[in-house]
Amino acid sequence: MKLLVIEDEAELAASITGYLTDYTCETAATFTQALEKIDMYTYDCILLDLTLPGGDGLRLLDMLKKEKRNDGIIIISARNAMEDKITGLTNGADDYIAKPFHLPELAARVYSVIRRKQFSSANVVEQHEVKIDLLSKKVFVEGNEVPLTKKELDLLLYFIGNKNKVISKGALAEHLSGDMADMLDSHAFVYAHIKNLKRKLTEAGYGNYLKNVYGTGYKWEV
Which parts of 20-102 fold into alpha helices (H)? Predict the structure, then answer.
């Protein structure tokens, strides 16, 4: 799962990314940096400060919603005015948390937004014989636990959350490594994670839903 933390306070941004280690986190400290990131990439959840050098965070929210993006959006702001809350939530934000906040609460809200948008608010995701407990981060096939690495679990959730859609190798690389994907010479690490994921699921007896779409990418087909 991939997050974008749009926050100009460097210490707070570092605290957030240091705490949310279950996610691939990218950061943007200014309006311009945030706009560049949003133009280039998609995210499972965006943490959006409203007061940014170079522009208002609400403008970014408007842009995201005009483009009909599906990124989850949580506003994190010291601007705790009721008007800002109403404007943000009315214009498409999924949640609003005022500074200062506790990091465990922020983590719970991020989890809740992603779960709601991608998995219909379920804590357990089931795909025929495959079951994923989102809280414990455990995967079962035919009732037997399948030990997956963090990256393999991330891939599995990404595929199931986008079932029956072809996902390009570039999109998978971006999802796994964020903006570092642009610096890589090949997608060998993507192939390695997918190979290991398929092997573990196949050995456990799953229904071979993960398909290689020749020359394009992969698809979880059900």
Answer: 31-40, 57-66, 82-90
